[in-house]
Amino acid sequence: MTLESELDERNAALKERLIATPPLMFFSRLGFRLLIAFAIFGTTLWRYREPYQPHEVCGTGYESLQLACSLSDTGKFSDPFEVLATGPTAHLAPLFPAYVSLLVRLFGRETYAVALAWSAIAIIGLHLALLPFLSRHFGLGLSPGIIAASVFLLARVPPYQMWESFYVGLLAVVLAFPMYDILEGRTYKGKVILSGILWGIMLWMATVPVLIMLAWVAWVFAKNRLSRRQKLSLGFLPFLVVSPWLIRNFAVFHHLIFVRDNLGLELAVSNNPCAVFSFTANEFSCCFEINHPNKGLDQAEAVRLLGEYAYNQMRLHEAVEWIQANPGRFAELTWLRSIALWFPSPTGHPLADSRVSLGVLAVWFMTLLSIPGLALMWKKSRSAAGILALWLLLFPLIYYVIQFDLRYRFPILWVTLLLAGFLISEFVKGGLHVVLRKG
User: What's the pTM?
Assistant: First the structure.
């Protein structure tokens, strides 16, 4: 057989296969994945559609929005509390308030509320649309990501546009791509630098993920697949990116402050004689008002007189003293906060709630499935399972010891859903395999 005739036979066979192929297979692989991503993004916009109305949100009690309005009006990162102007602050990480301030300037003091709402929905849509790409990047196929996004949309998790939760979630999803590649030794030029820059941006948005970053960097170093120059980039670039804010904090407060300084305040508000497990319950009982400068005039006066850094140090000592004197109550609060974080509940006792929404039930169900999902993923891809485990284990640590709020779960909700989606996908594949064998 000549080479020409062999090529003719191969072309004829290829044509037959194309004729027998379903129409969707004519899309390129990338095109098909983009179609799924656009479908998820579009469904998100439809699922969260509401007649959002312009309204004034400055002075409504949200520190993030208060800071954004202050930054827009005065150009200063100051006065985060509703009841009183307390001066320069490091109460929150700066990136989200700065972004909201930009919206204020672009759309005005009332209309920006609508822009902020739709911005949050778009961020949710983006991070859901990336999940099929991420699950395939992990070598798990598209199905786990599609299932994860579908359950999220079914649950219709509230967007919480006044906080940065889903912005952090989106950054976490984006970071998972280079995190996985670097662990797997795929370190082509620029990937390590890109990862370092993304981690730096994350620190401008939130400080809690620094624990995940440090643990992942230690893991990468232990694998010893990077050059010395790459290790230096990975270890120092995130801190270099966030260093302008650290320098600003030192110049303003004359103390080293790693991005935020509110840990002492949050511990004191959450652990005291009147404290209960959740923010909502503390607000209802007026315990929050007594202990937090955002609502309590006396506390705000103390911030203004002492300065924010000294005030937070004072509150840290108060919290530590109370915890040491009340270990039993602290353990009880910690337990209730832990349960509420993983199984969100108005009472803190999920089994005691008489009425639970479909969305909450979906989150509970996927949370339970994520545990065997992680074990199963570990067998297929240790790098993927390890990255997701880092987020699940390290991200919530601080939230076990401060008052529960639903938004604290949102940055890692995608992890839970992806793990559960993988388990469901493998179960369905196994069932189909059995059916086909019997057939």
Answer: 0.90
Domain that holds residue 420: 53-343+356-438
Q: What is the pLDDT of residues 381-411, one digit of tens each?
A: 999 999 999 999 999 999 999 999 999 999 9
- What pLDDT was estimated at residue 20? 45
Distance, in Å, from the CA atom of 395 to the CA atom of 175, rounded to the nearest integer, reads 15
Domain tally for the chain? Answer: 1
Cβ proximity of 373 and 422 under 8 Å: yes
- How many other CB atoms are there within 10 angstroms of residue 189's CB atom? 7
- Asked whether residue 320 is assigned to any structural domain, the reply reads yes
CA-to-CA dists, residue 239 to 201, 341, 382, angstroms: 10, 29, 28
Sequence letter at residue 3:
L
Q: Where are the alpha helices (DSSP H) in 343-409?
A: 358-380, 382-394
21 in a domain, yes or no? no
SS3 assignment, position 320: helix
pLDDT digits (tens, 9 = 90+) for 277-336: 999 889 989 999 999 999 999 999 999 999 999 999 999 999 999 999 999 999 999 999
Tell me how far apart the alpha carbons of residues 396 and 394 are, in angstroms, rounded to a whole number.
6
Does residue 349 belong to any structural domain of this protein?
A: no
Nearest to 350 by CA among 340, 335, 337: 340
Residues, the chain = 439
Q: Does residue 397 lie in a domain region?
A: yes
How many distinct helices (H) and strands (E) make up the chain?
Answer: 19, 0
Q: What are the residue ranges in the chain where pLDDT is below 70?
A: 1-28, 189, 346-354, 431-439
Q: Token pair of 249, please?
A: 């904090």
